[in-house]
Amino acid sequence: METGAPRTVLGVCRETVPGERRVALVPDVVTAVGRLGLTVLVEPGVGAQAWLHDEAYLAAGAELAGHAELLHRADALIGVHPPALDRLPGLRPGRLLIALLRPTAIPRQVGQWADRGVTAIGLDLADARLPAARPMDATTSQARIAGYRAVLLAAERLGRCLPPWGAGGTAFEPVRTLVIGAGPDGLQAVDTARRLGARVQVAELRRVERAQAVALGAELLALPGLDPVADDLELGETLAHRRSALSEVLAAAVPHYDLVVTALDVPGGDPPMLLRTDAVAAMRPGSVLVDLTAGPAHVPAPADGWAQGNLECARPGATTLVGDGVIVIGAGELAAQVPVTASQAYAHNVLALLTHLARRDGLRVDPTDPVQDPMVVTYQGTVRHAATRRLLAAATAAVGPPPP
What we know:
The protein is α/β, with parallel strands linked by helices. Helices cover about 35% and strands about 15% of the residues. It is built from eleven helices and 19 strands. It has helices at about 25-35, 55-60, 65-75, 105-115, 140-160, 185-195, 205-215, 230-255, 275-280, 340-355, 385-400; strands at about 10, 40, 65, 75-80, 95-100, 120, 165, 170, 175-180, 200-205, 220, 260, 290, 320, 325-330, 360, 360-365, 375-380, 380-385. Strands 3-2-1-4-5-6-18-19 form an eight-stranded mixed sheet, sandwiched between helices. The protein has a seven-stranded mixed sheet with strand order 11-10-9-12-13-15-14. Strands 7-8 form a two-stranded antiparallel sheet. Strand 2 (about 40), helix 2 and strand 3 (about 65) form a beta-alpha-beta unit.
């Protein structure tokens, strides 16, 4: 992105989503951003929820600017979440917006960005298969923190200690834990539960993820009649045709576990609903389930009202009792509950992207670059993200074209 100013101005937005405690840029990273030729503006109190005070930003070389001044001066805006449109009055064409966009959850807003000529880049859309894109992959960095937090949250509610225990010569069995899905969040849940002493089994179909779970010390749950698959594409195809078979296996298995973490997601699609309420109710009293795919809480639910995550009874950001005292926790935005580490990780994702975009004349967005291509959601007045574009087209078809 070219600008006539000698230095590109980067504005760090204060988060306004309820319960969000992360910040997009931490003071430790401000200096590195400055070395890229960028001037950093931050709103007063931008990092307060993560115990990062304005004085730390000033000491690192940032400037403080009120919201109106920040919008006027900034060539690029960064946030954890995209700012609501009512906080972006007079957003001028050519502005760059970087955040966790989740574009399919906000298609109308994405369309308005395109109409205003805003270039929007989603750090949640980086293709982790590309080595150059991995440092920008905020989905993985935040998911790992959520997986860690999920196990701690469950352990708090469980009423039993996770490792083997003994008293008076009697040995108690370790807590039996099942992790469904071994993506970044599921693998971190495996590692955390194992380190706390739990016996962990994993339900996973993807071969690479199965091997990673075993390497962390987990056992694989047998999935009769379901063959391992190569990748996310094959997993999506299997779930499209055999989800009921997987659900039956899991429903028969979960009563044997004390703690269940569900984390099975398919990139580019909705998480599959795997366990109905009656299956959860069959678990022992005091069992705990955490659905990492139920959330974040501020993302609108699907229009058909179907469950957002792997558990029919999970609600984002809420705890529900099912059956005879089975505790179900919908994760929501768990990474926001660990704001210091999550902000540091996210800020380094931002830095990696800015480093990739930085040129002598500012930040240059190039959708033909394989690294940038999947991340650039809007560019030069168009919506490039295919799934969001389809949603907008369907909405237009439903209501008809605007009157002449």
